[in-house]
Amino acid sequence: MDYETRKELIDVINELLKHPASRIFAQKIVPGNDFPPEYFEIIKNPMDLNTIKTKIEEQQYRSLKECIDDIELVWNNAEKYYGKKSPVFSLANEVHKLFKKIYRPIYIRTVHGFCEEAYKYRTKIENLIFNSPFLGNSSEAQSLSANKKSLIK
After folding, report:
1. CA distances (Å), 21 to each of 74, 88, 91, 112, in order?
2. Is the pLDDT of residue 152 over 60?
3. Count of H helices and E strands in the chain?
4. Is residue 103 pLDDT above 60, yes or no?
């Protein structure tokens, strides 16, 4: 991972850490402190935001994907251990939404991110075309609609 991407990811993590809901996800999970022993039986790979930040700073990630996988692991662990209806999962979901919002500019520079964005726009454009108020029910409109559908396949 290049220097600029590492710098941007550290900025993303710092923004997440400023959010009050992120406090529970900031510190390393230590057995016996606030976590029962069964936590580590259920969660095999605990992860927290400060550990991720340290790993970025120490250049321990070989790729952006590796880093993002760890960030996603934070939210996935919260869901797996606490369940979707728990207050902790609600906090995780809140911070995850913030992450997706502030990470987006980095993500769309990747091939996968660019393709995903392009696909979303393609779908929106198709919907606009298929639901155009100008087409009406005429035979010309139905023919045009059939031609558009064949182009997509």
Report:
1. 13, 9, 5, 29
2. no
3. 7, 0
4. yes
